[in-house]
Amino acid sequence: MKSLVCLKQVPDTETQIKVNADGSGIVTDGIKYVINPYDEFSVEEALRLKEKFKAGEVAILSIGPDRCLEAIRTALAMGADRGVHVCDDAVNTADPFVMAQTLAAVASNQEYDIIFCGHRAIDDDFAETGAMLAELLKIPQITLVTKIDVSADKKTIICERDIEGGKETVESPLPCVVTSQKGLNEPRYASLPGIMKAKKKPVEKKSLSDLGFSPETKLQAKNYSMPSARQAGKKFEGMEPQDAAKTVVQALRSEAKVI
Amino acid sequence: MANVLIYAEIKAGKIKKSAFELASEGRKLADKMGGELGAALIGPGLEPFAPELAKFGVDTVYTVEASELEGYNSEYFAQALAHLISETKPEVVLMSHTMQGKDLAPRTAAKLGVGVMADCISFSLDGSTLIGKRPMYAGKCFAEWSAAGTPQIATARPNVLETAENPKAGTVSKISFGVDTGRTTYVTKELNLDTSGKVDLTEAEIIVSGGRGMGGPDYTLLEEMSAIFGSRATVGASRAAVDAGWRKHSDQVGQTGKTVTPNLYIACGISGSIQHLAGMGSSKVIVAINKDTEAPIFTKADYGIVGDLFKVIPEFNKELKAILAE
Predict the structure, then answer these.
(1) What is the 3-state secondary structure (H, E, C) of B200-264?
(2) Is B307 in Cβ contact with A241 (below 8 Å)?
(3) Is the pTM of this model over 0.90?
(4) Which domain holds residue B115?
(5) Which of A221, B5, B59, B274 falls 20 to 30 Å from B222 in CA-CA distance?
(6) Do A169 and A160 form a contact (C-beta atoms < 8 A)?
(7) What is the pLDDT of residues A175-217, one digit of tens each?
């Protein structure tokens, strides 16, 4: 089973985001970067497929600046076989369409049975790249997947996916793009021998000229801003539970008018 | 003429409320651009929906029906919507950032070779350029986005845009379309829908949420509170509660779960990590019940009760029941 896993490096969830002075973006100093949590599920699932079929390969595809190599190495330490790192200022912080175009350009020169993406990246929160990649490659997309079962002949996949208010079970021919949702698995930690081995695993670095295409930017952002600061309201301390509850419930009706 | 098109999602034989939010917003944009507002409907038996959409300002209701479109399929629906857009040539397309919208919008856009401004919370126009304000990093910051090319596609977060009645003709126009079954796609084998009628977290008006302080998987107190509010409320959870296996992952509020914007968010036994506060910080009113007076959640709460939630919530529920019965 050959899997391509698309992986993005993002700020850790405990990061306090600050907007820069001219509102053109965020302050990146001092940010701790991690693998996008949904992409960790993808890496884990690809490793499990390789283990199940006792054959194949897990290749990591990542787009971004030099620091992304660290995220690729972490995935290699978990057990992935090799990495492809597209590092080019023209796409490092691109919109989802350009990301998908770039990933499609890489994928078209690779052998794969399945492509994994996280269902969204927790930095820009678009939740688009996987579906766009699937369309650009003209293969099916199965989004928000929480369970995967690949047939013995590696020709079809059965997935359980989240839909509003429930679950859907779908069957698709392979190859397809699967986007990982929380619940798919519990990602393993990199072992010490894994970390040592990862240092010797190949990571191919590519620029856009290597891929032979120029991106068409689709989206642009400006006027970054912080959420309006929320002030702490009334705090009721040292009161009898009954009195505190009564005070707040009445305030919700007469003051906040939400009930 | 610069027209606006909305995609109206149908769920269980009903148009979703979020589609009326889109229609109301689309009407305003179409008026400013001097164009018409269209609504796209895909699926079986669509004509009876037209009057409902007309009520919220839709001039023309475009319908696409085909045997392959009886149930939702990303490839076939994207084909149908891309075809409808090519035929009707809107300048702006609005969809909802629902689970279906997240699946359909990017695939449709990729077919048309354009981008999608996802999960917008407000819109404005700069000439004929649509500006969509959207949260990023789960709401830790915001930015104003614009899209190159035509159409300009955006998805809107449900429950944020206001609905406003503004009756228009709602004339039905059938778009003829044949699905290209040569493109491979999946088939749906089974649908397991929660029939409890519970509203999804992202669309709930009231969320009662529990965290580590719940001490275990028994959420009866919170389920009771949600039931007192009725069908507009649902129960959520923090990452700690989900990771402990107490609640389903789909109940999780926060940066690695769902970003929510209810009118009322009641946080019970949730300390308020940065990633949780990001995911619920845009709620209109926040109530926190926690025994730790230093818990960060109190810095965001409009009303905080410092105390043992197992003693406070039963009283809270009693008071709620009484006041809602008035």
Answers:
(1) CHHHCCEEEEECHHHCCCCCHHHHHHHHHHCCCEEEEECHHHHHCCCCCHHHEECCCCECCCCCE
(2) yes
(3) yes
(4) 4-174
(5) B274
(6) yes
(7) 999 999 999 999 999 999 999 999 999 999 999 999 998 898 9
- Is there a single domain that holds both residue B60 and residue B155? yes
The domains located in chain A, with CATH, are 2-211 (3.40.50.620), 229-259 (no CATH)
CA distance A258 to B9: 28
**CA B261/CA B271 separation, integer angstroms:** 19
Count of domains in chain B?
2
**Does B192 reside within a domain?**
no
Is residue B227 in some structural domain?
Answer: yes
Beta-carbon pairs below 8 A across chains A and B: 280
Helix (H, G, I), strand (E, B) or coil at B162: coil
Nearest to B149 among A218, A225, A256 (CB): A218
> How confident is the model at residue A149, as a pLDDT?
98
Domain membership flag for residue B318 = yes
Q: Mean pLDDT, consecutive 10-residue segments, chain B of 326 residues? A: 94 93 98 97 96 98 97 98 98 96 98 98 96 96 97 95 96 97 96 79 94 98 97 96 95 93 96 95 95 97 98 98 94
With an 8 Å Cβ cutoff, are B304 and A235 in contact?
Answer: yes
Same domain for B91 and B234, yes or no, is no
A97 and B110: CB-CB below 8 Å?
yes
Mutate to test the interface with A, among B10, B116, B194 (most CBs of A within 10 A): B116
- Measure CB to CB from residue B137 to each of A123, A220, A256 and give the nearest one: A123
Task: Return the CATH number at B66.
Answer: 3.40.50.620
CATH value at residue B249: 3.40.50.1220
Q: Which residues of A touch B241 (CB under 8 A)?
A: none
Tell me, yes or no, whether B191 lies in a domain: no
Which chain A residues are within 8 Å of B107, Cβ to Cβ? 131-132, 134-135, 141
Question: Cβ of B323 and A249 within 8 Å?
Answer: yes
Q: In the prediction, which pLDDT does A138 show?
A: 98
- Shared domain for B148 and B228, answered yes or no, is no
Chain-centroid distance of CA B211 in Å reads 23
Q: Does B260 touch chain A (CB under 8 A)?
A: no
Write out the two tokens for A51.
């283990």
